[in-house]
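Re: [ENG-882] Designed sequences occasionally contain unexpected residues at chain ends

Forwarding the minimal case from QA. Structure tokens:
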């Protein structure tokens, strides 16, 4: 997919918001207002590129307008950025309630991921999952988002993959530390480890019902552990870690 640079998105958005044609000078002022450090030559090169790609059309001295294709591109970019900010908002966890909701959302997606993985994972992918849970069993096991990310990948379901890659974004790595902390305090790490192995065994046995059930049990357990941890007078610990994540 063509990745649109922010400056190009900003320019297309500005032209789409404007009723008439936009001149190079107005485009320059607008982009500088938006915080882009651009020169006049950069602007004219950018505008020529947009012309070449038939996203804009020149009206001579009056400036340029978006073509129909350009308007479509601008509308899509707007949708993309709304979607991105919706996700960013959802991943901005504030309290125990948000964290439990996050795990419950994961349970809904990941049960389908585990199911699809049992049906679709390639033999070499199953081997990699085995390796992942075996090497982690040597006493230094931690609840790893990596395991969950991998299940999403090997589901070979585009819809699931799109959601899981966003859910397991590296920005959420500090969340893993929080879950490890909860796992240690609730003495749940060994159990989580065993559950990971059992999920891989079910995927390996090509048993979708069992893989799905085990994933639900695994996330139910994590939700319960999180609630018990919070109820045990540790809600402030969760809030402090989440606040730290948000500020990074
Ligand atoms: Zn897990």
């Amino acid at each position: 997919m063509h990745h649109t640079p922010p400056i190009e998105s900003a320019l297309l958005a500005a032209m789409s918001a404007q009723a008439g044609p936009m001149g190079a000078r107005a485009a320059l002022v607008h982009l500088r207002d938006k915080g882009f450090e651009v020169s006049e030559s950069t602007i004219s090169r950018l505008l020529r590129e947009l012309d070449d790609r038939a996203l804009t059309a020149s009206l001579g001295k009056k400036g340029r307008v978006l073509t129909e294709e350009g308007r479509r591109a601008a509308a899509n970019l707007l949708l993309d950025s709304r979607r991105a900010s919706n996700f960013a908002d959802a991943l901005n966890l504030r309290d125990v309630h948000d964290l439990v909701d996050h795990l419950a959302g994961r349970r809904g997606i990941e049960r389908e991921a585990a199911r699809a993985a049992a049906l679709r994972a390639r033999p070499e992918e199953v081997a990699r999952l085995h390796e992942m849970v075996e090497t982690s069993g040597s006493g230094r096991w931690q609840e790893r988002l990596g395991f969950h990310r991998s299940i999403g990948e090997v589901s070979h379901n585009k819809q699931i993959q799109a959601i899981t890659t966003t859910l397991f974004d590296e920005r959420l790595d500090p969340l893993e530390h929080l879950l490890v902390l909860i796992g240690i305090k609730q003495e749940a790490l060994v159990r989580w480890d065993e559950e990971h192995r059992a999920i891989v065994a079910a995927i390996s046995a090509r048993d979708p019902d069992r893989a799905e059930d085990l994933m639900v049990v695994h996330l139910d357990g994590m939700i319960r552990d999180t609630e018990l941890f919070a109820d045990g007078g540790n809600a402030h610990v969760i809030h402090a870690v989440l606040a730290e994540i948000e500020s990074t």
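QA comment: On inspection the terminal residues look reasonable. The CA atoms of residues 132 and 147 lie 7 Å apart. Proposing we downgrade this to a documentation issue.
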